[in-house]
Amino acid sequence: MIPEIEKASTQDIKTFQEDKLKELLQYLNTHSPYYNRMFKEQNIDIRSIHALEDLTMIPTTTKDQLQQYNNDFLCVPKSKIIDYVTTSGTMGDPVTFALTDNDLNRLAYNEALSFACSGVTENDVLQLMTTIDRRFMAGLAYFLGARKLGAGIIRVGAGIPELQWDSILKFKPTYLIAVPSFLLKLIEYAKQHDIDLKSSGVKGAICIGEPLRNQDFSLNTLADKITSQWQIELYSTYASTEMNTAFNECEKQQGGHHHPELIIVEILDENDQPVLANDVGELTITTLGIEGMPLLRFKTGDMVQAHTEACSCGRNTMRLGPVVGRKKQMIKYKGTTLYPPAMDNILNDFNEVESYIIEISRNTIGTDEICIKIATNAPTDNLLSRIKDHFRAKLRVSPRIEIHDKKVIQKLQFPIMSRKPVMVIDKRQNES
Prior knowledge:
The chain is of the alpha/beta class and 432 residues long.
């Protein structure tokens, strides 16, 4: 299931996207109060936008604008809206996205395409280990995608290893959709209850929410821990509510594939200009084929690197490398620039660390501070010393580390109304 456009030449893909961009600009000018107003205020003649390079003539859209003018992004009457989803906002209240029937069909197509990219077929059964309710787009997308692909799906929801294993043993899913660290909990439960991992029938996991790979695409510490105990294939997937689109790894596992019929991708620097080839920049997207709330040059906040060489799987599309970090979570710490994923990798090296949360704050002299709160079954000075030494060796810094009860960490990770675990608490905005 590789669409012809994904096997086309780079130039043909570019031409295809430029035609789609012209259609989108006309649609936004006609139906979007926000973009129509912006075009007028900025004196932008959309007829002058011909090539993808011309996108730099248009201002970017940020999450703050999306939140402040949320209803103005809606392009259809409310009678056409079938489903409402929300995503976290930068200024407190969540941002609402409204989907039409066509948007739901597009969401299903996107996820079916993404599953197929990772080797899932109509003969497979997927076990969904994330919520499908609470206005969460991802769970809905997975369900619709499996249905579109013709694969079976078991909607178990998040957490509860006992229930997950009951479903695995009863229904024999071939793929799991899960947060990678939860797979470790499943492995631990299996060990405690004499469940044979090899005979489980699971051959792969579509992993969400946490990185699996280093920047060179080798497995990171967390993924190594999983695969050393459970011989299954792990596939990274990257998506967000704003994109309505996923970037899944193929069997070559060399980055998440771009679907050019669904989204235009830019990697931008601090000045909203394209970065040089192979440089890291902020992923900025323009959605294609969306009726309800299409976005133009939306800055995702994620720092990534694009890989443009053809993949041996047969696709010629650009691939996204692992997310380096969230732009707003960049930390300037004692002369070193850090992102939380670099710290995740170090903490995952210690089996004694059961769970943790990273807190970023600003001290009285205006510099960043890092406090890592951990829960451990072996709270010793030796453990703290080893963790600090490992940080110094790998990152050349030594953050403050505190030991807390596991229940305290879990409460921080799962605040009220949370739909996925919070691993980073950034207090700097409240302190500025």
